[in-house]
Design goal:
Elements lengths: L1 E6 L2 E4 L4 E9 L5 E8 L6 E6 L6 E3 L7 E6 L4 E6 L8 E9 L15 E2 L3 E6 L1
Parallel strand pairs: 2-11
Antiparallel strand pairs: 1-3, 3-8, 4-5, 4-9, 5-6, 7-8, 9-10, 9-11
Length: 127
Amino acid sequence: QVQLVESGGGLVQAGGSLRLSCTASGRTVSRYAAGWFRQAPGKEREFVAGISWSGAYTNYADSVKGRFTISRDNAKNTVYLQVISLKPEDTAVYYCASNPGWPAPSIPTTTREVDYWGQGTQVTVSS
């Protein structure tokens, strides 16, 4: 079993920034692709950003391109999401997701592709 723990959420004014972190622990896996999803009240969970095991490949939802940046530090088993120019519509619970695999696990872009979820961290953007 893999545990994912997110941190870094909070309340921020529109135009502000945050850095979310997701640290993996538990059963050691050799490689995993990772992603961030978010879920606003009354809406389905949606893909935000994803990153390959090596970090060489990234993928973003159109709504966050140019504002969100996903990165990772495999030595720390941590994936980051840097978010800038936040908008009230970015308000949601942000979930970390991982897909272990070998040799090149695919980046999860839908909820059905995710093997492990974190518990979520709340991001609230005030106008």
